[in-house]
Structures are given as C-alpha cells and as structure tokens.
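Here is a typical sample entry:
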Amino acid sequence: MAHHERDHGLQMLEQICANLCWEENPDAAAAAAASHIKRFWTPAMRRSVCEAVAAGEASPSDLGRKVVELIG
C-alpha cells in the first residue's frame, strides 16, 4: 500500500477517535472505534496502519494506539 494511502488511513483513525472522545471511558471508546474499523475498513487498510505503528513510522494518539492494539 502506498504511503499516501497509509497516511490517509492514519488520518481516518484519528478522526474516528476524535468522534468518540465524548466517551468518558477510554477503553470503551477504543472498543467502539475498533468495532467501526473492523466493520468498514478492508483488511489491507487495517494491516497497513498496524504495520506503520509497529514499525515506528506513525505515532497515533493514545486512543489511536489502543485502537491499533485491538484491530491488530
């Protein structure tokens, strides 16, 4: 997957997390975001974001990192 597609996936991850910030419990927010991503993202999109974070090529927010752990 091209870097611009990976970067777009990371941007979408953060947007999803931002939309769930109203959730007071970070674990519940991460679970809701992970559920959304698992339903609507392709396996290649999920894999690309997870690989970028694991390789240190991306630094998501704390909530984003929790989501990546759940979808990875």
The chain has one domain: 3-71. Residues 3-19 form the longest helix (17 residues).
